[in-house]
Amino acid sequence: MLLTLGIFVGVIIIMGLLFVNLSPQFGGKHTDEAIARFETSQNFKKGKFTNQSFTPTFPGFSDLGKVFKAVTKKVPNTIPSSPIKVEKVSNQEFTKPSNETKFIWFGHSAFLLEIQGKRILIDPMLSDVPAPHPWLGGKRFTDGLPMSVEDLPSIDAVIFSHDHYDHLDYETIQKIKKRVKKYFTPLGLGTHLQAWGIDKDDIVELDWWEETQFEDLKFVATPARHFSGRGLSDSMKTLWASWIIQSETENIYFSGDSGYDTHFKKIGEKYGPFDIAFMECGQYNDDLPDSPIHMYPEQTAQAALDVKAQYTMPIHWASFKLNNHPWKEPVERLIKKAEEFNITLLTPRIGQVFTLNSLDNSSSNWWEKY
């Protein structure tokens, strides 16, 4: 029996190692040329990217008991009572001529944005499960997507905040790459895109505070407090970032994933105020208060003040269960704090088309139905 058990365990280990090393989901490995570029960054130390403040991303041995208790704690209503219905959108909405800046939220942190006639995808994780294999994660909360990946219009630019599976999705990239002109990423993430068949010349990698011009738009990679990694040995090997998208008349901020820190205030002082800020709000754990890689809703409200946002939209919620809190709780807690801080929140339905000119009419408490 022990021999049989040993063989079984050995087979499982071998299969796991083969999957990690052979599956394209895990991305690519940096070239010496790429690493030489990283070494010029103030954020790259001893072979890894770092945060501005000390940010533990993995628990110490003494904390393992507390972590196990937190992640196994029974919490009610962590997923909706029924699949969330989304607004269905035709791709003609984004192919017909328009002078308006408009958005569609696909849930979690994924957006399709049209600005100055350019169509931009942000963190397009459009698959069902945010994991390297469907067996390794929970399914999306929604009943489909507002628009199928196959129906997306041609895309001028794709912006990524970091390389985690709920933001950078291999399957989505494979389906859209023939319709995308340019990709904009933090340092190192382009290695994954190249491994997936995207030409190096179509990728622009930026360090924090670097700016680039994309026709009549400006993109700025700004700091975030998070981490990166897709496999067993590549933690912190690519940079993570928040982003600013500017036209001559519009100023948009996207937080990516981030714990709270002083960078929000610095961004607000240098680039604010913003017409709208898409701010992380979800996938925290109240039983792990020392984890600084995600924000609690109250911190999201403070970050919105720091960046000087006229409108704030909570993202990183309502699509996946990636931590142990009731699924509605992020927006409900944020609403309370926003009222205290006199912050104007934006809560559109998933799939709802909303424009920068009509934000006051773009909110509802749609989650209360579930």
From TrEMBL:
**Is this entry keyworded Chaperone?**
no
* Pfam families in alphabetical order: Lactamase_B_2
Identify the keywords attached in UniProt to this record, alphabetized: Membrane, Transmembrane, Transmembrane helix
The domain of life for this entry's organism is: Bacteria
KW Membrane (keyword) present = yes
What residues form the membrane-spanning segments?
6-22
What are the Metallo-beta-lactamase domain coordinates in residue numbering? 119-317
Q: Which GO terms describe its cellular component?
A: cytoplasm
User: One GO molecular-function annotation for this sequence?
Assistant: N-acylphosphatidylethanolamine-specific phospholipase D activity
Q: Which InterPro entries does this UniProt record tie to the protein?
A: Metallo-B-lactamas, NAPE-PLD, RibonucZ/Hydroxyglut_hydro
Q: What is this protein called?
A: Membrane protein
Natural source organism: Tenacibaculum holothuriorum
